[in-house]
Amino acid sequence: NRKLLMQLKGKETITLDGKKIHLYANIGSVSDVKAVLANDAAGIGLFRSEFLYLEKNTYPTEEEQFQVYRTVAEMMAGKKVIIRTLDIGADKQVDYFNLEKEENPAMGYRAIRICLDRTDIFKTQLRALYRASAYGNISIMYPMIISVDEVRQIKKIVEEVKAELMEQGIKFNEVEQGIMIETPAAVMESEALAGEVDFFSIGTNDLTQYTLAIDRQNPKLDNIYDSHHPAVLKMIQMVVENGHKEGCWVGICGELGADISLTRTFLKMGVDELSVSPSFVLALRKEIREVNISEL
Ligand code: PEP
Ligand code: MG
């Protein structure tokens, strides 16, 4: 079976009626890139940058981050690499951040909320990302967004970083900007948000948690933590429609994107991109190549 799938390496991810799907892979560190290439993903749809912060006893420097982002961009040789900015807090605790203990960490001080509060940390990461953009095809994605206002704050900081780099004569490329859609607020605001960014990537792990009000970390609730819940599927449909209205492409980078029992549903909804663990890439390519969207 694996052998049959291997024959799909080098083939396009395209439906029988000609819709190309961007089939990308998720990674959590540089060492995962090997598997991305071995499974012939067309790009990286989610690079969780947290590992840079988790594996150390203090903040990673701009230079350290730059080297990592540049290495991944170069290894992918021009293919798209979507790097998500820092998403710590809740399940991902980093001691040296000295975060206070919280009653509700999943709804707490985390991810983009930390970045917009501690802009020194955020700017360091953005500088490293923009510097690396000169060496490949990098896009940036922001986690846990709930409002247009946040996106405007981010864009202002990005403009400051670009102006600084320009002034210092440091080269960089233009970078596609996207957001994770993983809160119900972002879903409900998706039409307005689509006017602000280039793409959406739906984080079904958190979107399920926040929509169903079920802690994704609580094993006691595993049996009812259901990403197939109609509320979640309707949200995905809504995000695709609102994204497309404003010219955003829309992908899924949560675990649900790899669920073959839903691939046809996602294609029918108009999903443009799926980003999954490298080991699922070829099985999804097989499934997508056998679908005729017009017949669904
Ligand atoms: C998600 O929430 O679906 C997601 C992709 O991000 P993470 O699992 O890293 O929270
Ligand atoms: Mg998430």
Brief write-up:
Residues 6-292 form the PEP-utilising enzyme C-terminal domain. One of its GO terms (cellular component) is cytoplasm. By secondary structure, this protein is α/β, with parallel strands linked by helices.
Can you describe what's shown?
With 296 residues, the protein is α/β, with parallel strands linked by helices. Helices cover 41% and strands 14% of the residues. The protein has helices spanning 2-6, 33-38, 50-54, 62-75, 111-117, 119-132, 148-167, 184-188, 190-194, 204-212, 230-245, 263-269, 281-289, and strands at residues 22-27, 43-48, 80-84, 137-142, 176-181, 199-202, 249-252, 273-276. An 8-stranded parallel β-barrel has the order 1-2-3-4-5-6-7-8, surrounded by 4 helices. The radius of gyration is 19 Å and the shape is globular. The active site is at 253 (proton donor). This is Phosphoenolpyruvate-protein phosphotransferase.
Considering the chains and any ligands shown, give keywords for the structure.
binds magnesium ion, 296 residues, alpha/beta, binds phosphoenolpyruvate
Number of strands: 8
| Poorly predicted parts | none
Span between termini: 26 Å
Task: Tell me the fraction of residues in β-strands, as a range.
Answer: 5-15%
Q: Any chance you could write out the topology, listing elements then pairs?
A:
Blueprint: H1 2-6, E1 22-27, H2 33-38, E2 43-48, H3 50-54, H4 62-75, E3 80-84, H5 111-117, H6 119-132, E4 137-142, H7 148-167, E5 176-181, H8 184-188, H9 190-194, E6 199-202, H10 204-212, H11 230-245, E7 249-252, H12 263-269, E8 273-276, H13 281-289
Parallel strand pairs: 1-2, 1-8, 2-3, 3-4, 4-5, 5-6, 6-7, 7-8
The protein binds phosphoenolpyruvate and magnesium ion (MG).
Residues 143, 182, 203, 205-206 line the site of magnesium ion (MG).
